[in-house]
Write a sequence for this structure.
C-alpha cells in the first residue's frame, strides 16, 4: 500500500511540475483554460492532469486491496515493478535504490502512458480551428495534447530528474565522495613518481570541470531527446493520416523513449552512488599516503 501511495504522490508531482514551466508559446489551450489559480494551463498540462488521475484510479482499481496471494491486476503491477527493479538496481546500486526507485518507476510509467496517449482518439485531433474557403477545417488549437509533446513538459520532467539526482547523491554519497568522483586523483600515489602523480591531479581537475559542464546540460539533452521523438512522431502520424504502420512505430518509440529517459536518470545516479564505498576506500587510501 505504501508503494502505491508513493507512486501516486510521485505521479502527481510530475504532472504538476510542468505547470511552473508552461509558456504562452506553441500550442496553447483555449483562453477558457487560462488563468486557473493564476497559472497558464496549456493543453498538454490539461492532458497530464487527466491522464494522471486515470493512472492513479486505474492502478488503484487494478491492485485493489493488496493480498499475499495477489490478484491478476496486482500481479501485473508487481511484475512491472520487479522487472524494472532487476534492471535498475545493478545500475543505481543497492544503497541508493530505496530512495531512487519510486521516482524511476514513476518516470517510466508516467512517460510511457503520455507517449501512448497521443495515439488515442481526440488527443491532438480535436479542438479549435478555422474553416478555409473550400470548407475544410484546419485545427489550430487542440484541446488535448500529450504532455511529452510539448518542450515545457519534457523540460519539467528533466528538471525533476536533475533535482532528484542532486538530492540522492548528497544523501547516499556525500560531498566528500562527490568531490573525489569529480575532481579527485584516481591514480595510486604509491605506484607513481610524485611529479607524475601531481600532474595527473591537474588533469583530473580539468576533467572534473568538463564533467561539471556535461552535468549542467543534462536537463537539456534529456528533455530535447524525449520531446524531439514524441513531437516528431506526432507530426508523422498527422502527415501519414494515421496509417497502421505509423501507429505501430509510435508504440515502439513511446516504449523505448520512456525506458531511455528512466535508464539515463538511473545511470546518472549510479555513476556516483553505485561505487561510493569503493571511492571512499580509495579516498581514505590516498589520504593515508
Amino acid at each position: 500500500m505504501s508503494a502505491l501511495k508513493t507512486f501516486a504522490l510521485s505521479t502527481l508531482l510530475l504532472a504538476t511540475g510542468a505547470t511552473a514551466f508552461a509558456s504562452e508559446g506553441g500550442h496553447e489551450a483555449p483562453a477558457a483554460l487560462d488563468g486557473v489559480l493564476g497559472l497558464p494551463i496549456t493543453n498538454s498540462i490539461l492532458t497530464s492532469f487527466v491522464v494522471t488521475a486515470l493512472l492513479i484510479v486505474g492502478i488503484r482499481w487494478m491492485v485493489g486491496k493488496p493480498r499475499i496471494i495477489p490478484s491478476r491486476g496486482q500481479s501485473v503491477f508487481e511484475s512491472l515493478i520487479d522487472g524494472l527493479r532487476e534492471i535498475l538496481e545493478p545500475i543505481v546500486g543497492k544503497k541508493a535504490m530505496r530512495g531512487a526507485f519510486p521516482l524511476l518507476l514513476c518516470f517510466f510509467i508516467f512517460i510511457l502512458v503520455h507517449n501512448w496517449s497521443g495515439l488515442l482518439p481526440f488527443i491532438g485531433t480535436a479542438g479549435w480551428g478555422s474553416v478555409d474557403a473550400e470548407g475544410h477545417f484546419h485545427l489550430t488549437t487542440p484541446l488535448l495534447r500529450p504532455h511529452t509533446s510539448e518542450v515545457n513538459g519534457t523540460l519539467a520532467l528533466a528538471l525533476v530528474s536533475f533535482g532528484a539526482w542532486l538530492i540522492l547523491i548528497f544523501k547516499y554519497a556525500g560531498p566528500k565522495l562527490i568531490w573525489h568522483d569529480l575532481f579527485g586523483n584516481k591514480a595510486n600515489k604509491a605506484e607513481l613518481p610524485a611529479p607524475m602523480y601531481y600532474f595527473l591531479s591537474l588533469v583530473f581537475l580539468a576533467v572534473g570541470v568538463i564533467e561539471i559542464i556535461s552535468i549542467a546540460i543534462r536537463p537539456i539533452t534529456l528533455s530535447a531527446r524525449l520531446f524531439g521523438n514524441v513531437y516528431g512522431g506526432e507530426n508523422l502520424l498527422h502527415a501519414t493520416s494515421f496509417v497502421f504502420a505509423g501507429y505501430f512505430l509510435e508504440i515502439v518509440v513511446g516504449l523505448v523513449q520512456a525506458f531511455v529517459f528512466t535508464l539515463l536518470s538511473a545511470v546518472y545516479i549510479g555513476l556516483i552512488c553505485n561505487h561510493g564505498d569503493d571511492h571512499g576506500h580509495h579516498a581514505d587510501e590516498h589520504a593515508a599516503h
